Amino acid sequence: MKLDIALIIISSVSLFGVILFYIVTNLLRKKINELVEIKKRNKKSKSSSRKF
Question: Averaged over 18-35, what is the pLDDT?
Answer without folding.
Answer: 96
